[in-house]
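Bench log. Compound arrived from synthesis this morning; before running ITC I wanted a structural hypothesis for how adenosine-5'-diphosphate sits in the protein. Inputs:
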Amino acid sequence: VASQLNSSGLLRTQGLIGGKWSDAYDGKTIKVYNPATGESIVDVACMGGRETNDAISAAYDAYGSWSKTTAAERSKFLRKWYDLLMVHKEELAQLITLEQGKPLKESVGEINYGAGFIEFAAEEAKRIYGDIIPAPLSDRRLFVLKQPVGVVGAITPWNFPLAMITRKVGPALACGCTVVIKPSELTPLTALAAAELSIQAGIPPGVVNVVMGNAPDIGDALLASPQVRKITFTGSTAVGKKLMAGSAETVKKVSLELGGNAPCIVFDDADLDVAVKGTLAAKFRNSGQTCVCANRIIVQEGIYEKFANALRDTVQNMKVGDGFSEGVAQGPLINEAAVKKVESLIHDATSKGAKVILGGKRHSLGFTFYEPTVISDVNSDMRISREEAFGPVAPLLRFKTEEDAIRIANDTNAGLGSYIFTNSIQRSWRVAEALEYGLVGVNEGVISTEVAPFGGFKQSGLGREGSKYGMDEYLEIKYVCLGNM
Ligand code: ADP
């Protein structure tokens, strides 16, 4: 796969600074691994503060002219970039499976989803309207202008190597901002391929820059620079909090997509098939490694046994294996640390009374493969109910009344994705309104799309990505008063 990608020019191993591919200044590299085999794919540049400062300068220089392009021009560039992402869909999908591990079919899905943010941004670029406000005095006119915030630092995780970047960079560029991207060191290759396609799309040098390597050094350089006016981050709550605190010094705008602890509530009046299918999708997509993956499956007592049995039977049929193999539904976890986390959560739960009804151990394929797991009799005191498992484990909790379900669901500091399964219209409205979550899927397990706002309540983050609301994150509002007319 790697050599095929190399011949199409999409396998990049250097950072991108001001339109030039660049090694780390001290020549350092780090390896990128295939999580399914543990083999290293390539060595990539391992950059730090110096390269980041140069990338910021390049982005700042490019900002002067990029922010003055017309909306129609930016729209055309973005559309071209989208077209190229779609032309190279197959190769990019392979790259995602190679460095991240998800089944190829899911990787193709990520390209469609991820490229969708660029297409949407291309369209939305033309609709960044200001306002005229009726003046309180007759000799004045009041206007509202929307202007780009400036240079954006975008820090992204490994679980969606393309989509987490496009959902930030698309709207940023559409609004007239320039960006310094820091992809995850675990999955930089997709980001670099996307950046290469941005060059092929004609997006001017310095508008899109990529640095990767020493995350804290790169992060510190982005935070310290007064030229960086905005930090947009997806990743762990702990790092998000650091970035938010670090942004205070220069009062940067901040958007954060942090950890979730998604409840998936199955009511007695749910359609069993819909609930099982929806839960399966909400839980096991990307082997449970998404921030909106169902983390607690909260099931009403009347349907509990039936649901648990049906879920176990369905999960049992999922094929585990290398993401490149035909028919595989569950790939490897990202690394050994991820497997250990899952093991320790299951150990904690079973030591406190939970029962493994399927899986519960490493897969016979070994390495980072874990058996898709269902555990029952879970309660809110177990770590698995309080921490994100980020793995293929479905913990079942039991509840009696609708009030109980809402209380259990909201009993967490997180507030990103949530799901409810019920056939009652009244109940779906009541519960959707009561859930302290940024996203609610009613009788659906996968609801993310570039046309709808994605983001969290409470400690799951700040701001929204996707949709018209996602544009506001990259815009300043300016009030202009024309007086003495
Ligand atoms: P995950 O558990 O998803 O890997 P992290 O928050 O550790 O979540 O990583 C998300 C992104 O944040 C990655 O690109 C990672 O390199 C980056 N990161 C980690 N630590 C820092 C830091 N101190 N400053 C800036 N970025 C960081």
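What the model suggests: DSSP finds 16 helices and 20 strands in the chain. The pocket of adenosine-5'-diphosphate is lined by residues 155-158, 182, 184-185, 215-216, 219, 235-236, 239, 242 (CB under 6 Å).
ITC booked for Thursday regardless.
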